[in-house]
Amino acid sequence: MWRTDFGIPVWRASYGEIGLYPNPKTRPIEVSRDFERVQAVLVEQARSASMSPIGYRKLRSNAGDVYCFEFRSNKLSSVVCLFDHTTLSVRFDGAPNYMDDVFEVVSSARRIGSPR
User: Fold this and answer.
1) Strand 52-61's sheet: what is its strand order?
2) How many other CB atoms are found less than 10 A from the CB of residue 2?
3) Which end of the chain is more exposed for a tag (fewer CB within 10 A), N or C?
4) What is the model's pLDDT at position 16?
5) Exposed, middle or buried, 65 (CB in 10 Å: 0-12/13-18/19+)?
6) Residues 6+ apart with CB under 8 A from 19
7) Are the beta carbons of 58 and 67 closer than 8 angstroms?
């Protein structure tokens, strides 16, 4: 997939972007303990961006439990995944047909130095 400098697809095709966001300057997020508060903050942010909450999934990875919150607007899907007891998050924005791939990538995450 070719993209211009402005992030616009060169031709009509579904696309998506996934980003990893480690934030070592903050304390780890304890999603399992603060689930309601975390969900409320993410839903509010999504609604301010005209997105509707779809639900959440709790995934298991070699890096621990991961909580993924799904949102949608017209043709765009967005997912925010938070790794429990860490400062790492993953965000996906793009076409809904890539959602299964996003969850597969997140589920396969492992800590550096951990066995495969």
Assistant:
1) 16-22, 88-94, 77-83, 64-72, 52-61
2) 7
3) C
4) 87
5) middle
6) 90, 91, 92
7) yes
This prediction has a pTM of 0.82
The strand pairing partners of 70, in sequence order, are: 55, 79
Q: What is the mean pLDDT of each run of 10 residues along the chain (116 residues)?
A: 51 78 86 94 94 94 93 92 93 91 89 56
Give the residue carrying structure tokens 């009509």: 12
